[in-house]
């Protein structure tokens, strides 16, 4: 897969005649684009449905939308939804393979896979790595998936952020937790989470100001140790959680992550549709 | 005031092991009921059936008026009868809210037509349950309000709560309180802890309940007015209740079967039928509730039976409404999951499902004695049955026990001297 994206002609015939539907209930740039491109590169037919402008706007339930799509008999439905467990419900209601492209604050498994891929490409190994995940963990499905994925490959993680954005009990995932930015000094990878501006709504603010957040937790050149790499799932708020000088430095793997996203999502579709009847098993299953 | 369909008391004879913990009875007896009244109690041969004072549920949502697609007075009381209940109290958070004598009067009239067991109706504490102005409590009490509650939501203003307690002195009815500090529970879908953190569900901390429990107990002490704390879930709330009871505050409390049996680990399934308010909490909380129930600090088991239409629960967890049904499964769930493993005694469960709630709300306590109205439940403790979606008398099937096999079954319910329920066929043995 990785080799194919460097060729002049990038398309592979592997999934010709297969149908991949992207069902996106939340806005997304890179995840939707890379799933769409991944399917196209593998010659699958692809179609993307966004909640805005579809029957969802008219109040159609997730169940009815899923059943409607299932009637077209797609091979894969890629689901992005603001509610936890929505892809699992779609899997229960349809016969298609379902890929979770992000469900609420719960999981974003292909993001975790692409992050592991990008880390291994950059550092040569995963086992024994120490990854500091910095920022708004409370609202982050990326952090939850990544901590679990790192545990599976023998790497360890430390969550760093303001106390109000670190959920109580999160250490049960098997990670360390710190409210001190100096906790990143030992890490091989500094993984910066997006500081979501919508979390700063008046009366709902989790930190007093973005200025104070940046002063305490912003990833500046002074806070990055030589040899460390810096990652970010995008979209970045330059000048808030990450200093532009860091984002544009050689230490930043941000565009490598985007590229890895395409490769990994091609691999996910390929695996699902060529390995017969093997379903991706996630930690969570609905009875 | 409890009302149901008019009818004559029936005559029948029941034989079995009579267990009436509040009266200290546990022996094999034959009970003869004549025109609805216990006429004779005599020794009998040992039997495999248990006869107990029928159950009283102080916390039921009958969804009438407004959501008769989810439950009606008939379906809800039939479900209650099938669960062994001889009396239930319905919550006023309907559409419209039961906040005026006219709405309450219409309900009472309907209950006289439809209810198969005696049913009481609570009225709202505040108009529209908006937490702003008190309802006309005296007029509502005269029209038959069994108690006052804004259940479904808390009385947010401490000032209004104090005034409600003080003013409720014009009636003899208690206030039943849903304790929740919305500033702490907002956006919450599951107990704050490892499970909500891992799943990314909005946290609903124990303190959202316990700070309101503390406040309401303090106001109850201040006004020397009786309060009833509904559906307690957190050990901090139990600790506050214990301190208040020790100080002589006139409070009673209830707990639901689901908070006694399940913890937030069940939420990992993301099944909308384990989404309740207050949420399922940790093992420490569950143990503290069990302990309080044994000690009778919590003296009532209440189902908080909350029917929801199927399509409303057929959605992702966060989008689903809070609440589960419970009338038809309460005893069997407690017997199977707590009595059989030795966590609670049969006597504790029977007492807290009958005499406990009756006393807390000043409803006539179901007793097995000559001259008393017959309020009896006959139980087959060895029967086994499967909880299935199509097996309910309730119009809704949002049970946390779907797919489970339960031990023990209600065979017959006699409510106010009439047979309100009898099994169609004896369960498979």
* Uncertain regions spanning at least 5 consecutive residues of chain A: 283-287
Overall spatial form of chain A = globular
Order of helices and strands of chain A: EHEHEHEHEHEEEHEHH
Quick one: how many beta strands of chain B?
17
CATH architecture of chain B: Alpha-Beta Barrel
Number of helices of chain A: 8
Tell me the radius of gyration of chain B: 20 Å
For the largest beta sheet of chain A, what order do the strands appear in spatially?
Answer: 7-6-5-8-9
Sheet having the most strands of chain B: 7 strands, mixed
- Greatest interface and its residue counts? A-B, 27 and 24 residues
Top CATH class of chain B: Alpha Beta
Oligomer: heterodimer
What is the arithmetic mean of pLDDT of chain B?
A: 96
Sheet/helix structural class of chain B? alpha/beta
**CATH class identity of the largest domain in chain A:** Alpha Beta
In angstroms, what separates the terminal alpha carbons of chain A?
A: 35 Å
Summarize the main sheet of chain A.
5 strands, parallel
End-to-end separation of chain B = 40 Å
Taking pLDDT < 50 over at least 5 consecutive residues as the criterion, the unreliable ranges of chain B are none
Describe this structure in words.
The complex is a heterodimer of chains A (287) and B (429). Chain A is built from 8 helices and 9 strands. Chain A has 287 residues and is α/β, with parallel strands linked by helices. Chain A has 2 domains: 101 residues, Rossmann fold (3-Layer(aba) Sandwich), CATH 3.40.50.1370; 149 residues, Rossmann fold. In chain A, the strands form 2 sheets. In chain A, strands 7-6-5-8-9 form a 5-stranded parallel beta sheet, covered by helices on one side. In chain A, α4 crosses α5. Chain B has one domain: Metal-dependent hydrolases (TIM Barrel), CATH 3.20.20.140. Chain B is built from 14 helices and 17 strands. A 7-stranded mixed beta sheet of chain B has the order 3-2-1-4-15-16-17. A 4-stranded parallel beta sheet of chain B has the order 5-6-7-8. Chain B starts with 11 loop residues before the first strand and ends in a 7-residue tail after the last strand. The interface between A and B is medium-sized, with 27 and 24 residues.
């Amino acid at each position: 897969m990785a080799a194919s994206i460097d060729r002049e002609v990038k398309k592979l015939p592997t999934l010709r005649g297969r149908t991949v539907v992207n069902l996106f209930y939340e806005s997304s740039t890179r995840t939707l684009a890379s799933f769409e491109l991944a399917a196209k590169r593998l010659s699958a037919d692809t179609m993307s449905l966004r909640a805005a402008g579809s029957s969802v706007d008219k109040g159609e339930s997730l169940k009815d939308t899923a059943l409607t799509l299932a009637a077209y008999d797609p091979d894969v439905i890629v689901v992005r939804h603001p509610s936890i467990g929505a892809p699992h419900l779609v899997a229960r209601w349809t016969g298609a393979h379902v890929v979770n492209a992000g469900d609420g604050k719960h999981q974003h498994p292909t993001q975790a896979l692409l992050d592991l891929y990008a880390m291994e490409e950059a550092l040569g190994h995963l086992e024994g790595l120490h990854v500091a995940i910095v920022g708004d963990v409370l609202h982050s499905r990326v952090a939850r998936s990544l901590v679990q994925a790192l545990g599976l490959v023998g790497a360890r993680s430390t969550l760093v952020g303001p106390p109000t954005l670190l959920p109580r009990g999160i250490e049960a995932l098997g990670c360390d937790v710190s409210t001190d930015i100096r906790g990143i000094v030992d890490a091989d990878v500094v993984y910066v989470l997006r500081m979501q501006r919508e979390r700063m709504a008046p009366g709902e603010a989790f930190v007093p100001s973005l200025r104070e957040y940046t002063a305490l937790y912003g990833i500046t050149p002074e806070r990055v140790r030589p040899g460390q790499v810096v990652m970010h799932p995008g979209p970045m708020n330059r000048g808030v959680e990450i200093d532009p000088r860091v984002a544009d430095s050689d230490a930043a793997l941000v565009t490598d992550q985007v590229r890895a996203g395409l490769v990994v999502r091609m691999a996910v579709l390929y695996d699902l549709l060529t390995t017969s009847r093997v379903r991706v098993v996630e930690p969570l299953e609905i009875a | 005031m409890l009302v149901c369909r008019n009818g004559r008391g029936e005559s029948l004879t029941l034989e079995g092991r009579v267990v009436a913990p509040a009266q200290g009875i546990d022996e094999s007896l034959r009970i003869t009921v004549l025109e609805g009244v216990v006429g004779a109690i005599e020794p009998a041969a040992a039997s495999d059936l248990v006869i107990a004072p029928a159950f009283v549920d102080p916390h039921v949502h009958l969804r009438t008026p407004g959501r008769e697609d989810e439950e009606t007075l008939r379906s809800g009381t039939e479900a209650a009868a099938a669960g062994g209940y001889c009396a239930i109290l319905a919550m006023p958070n309907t559409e419209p809210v039961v906040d005026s004598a006219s709405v309450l009067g219409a309900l009472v009239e309907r209950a006289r037509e439809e209810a198969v067991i005696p049913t009481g109706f609570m009225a709202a504490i505040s108009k529209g349950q908006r937490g702003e102005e008190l309802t006309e409590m005296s007029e509502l009490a005269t029209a038959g309000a069994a108690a006052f509650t804004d259940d479904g939501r808390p009385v947010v203003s401490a000032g209004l709560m104090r005034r409600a307690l003080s003013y409720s002195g014009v009636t003899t009815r208690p206030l039943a309180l849903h304790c929740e500090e919305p500033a702490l529970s907002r956006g919450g879908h599951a107990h704050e802890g490892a499970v909500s953190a891992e799943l990314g569900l909005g946290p609903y901390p124990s303190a959202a309940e316990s700070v309101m429990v503390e406040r309401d107990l303090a106001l109850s002490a201040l006004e020397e007015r009786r309060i009833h704390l509904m559906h307690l879930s957190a050990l901090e709330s139990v600790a506050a209740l214990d301190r208040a009871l020790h100080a002589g505050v006139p409070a009673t409390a209830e707990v639901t079967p689901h908070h006694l049996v399940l913890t937030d680990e069940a939420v990992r399934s993301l099944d909308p039928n384990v989404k309740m308010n207050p949420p399922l909490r940790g093992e420490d909380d569950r143990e503290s509730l069990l302990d309080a129930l044994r000690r009778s600090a919590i003296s009532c088991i209440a189902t908080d039976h909350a029917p929801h239409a199927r399509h409303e629960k057929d959605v992702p967890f966060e989008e689903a409404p809070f609440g589960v049904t419970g009338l038809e499964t309460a005893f069997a769930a407690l017997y199977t999951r707590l009595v059989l493993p030795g966590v609670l005694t049969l006597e504790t469960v029977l007492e807290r499902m009958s005499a406990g709630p009756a006393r807390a709300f000043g409803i006539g306590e179901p007793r097995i004695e000559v001259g008393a109205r017959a309020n009896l439940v006959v139980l087959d403790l060895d029967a086994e049955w499967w909880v299935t979606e199509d097996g309910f008398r309730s119009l809704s099937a949002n049970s946390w026990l779907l797919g489970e096999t339960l031990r023990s079954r209600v065979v017959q319910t006699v409510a106010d001297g009439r047979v309100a329920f009898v099994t169609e066929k004896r369960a498979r043995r």
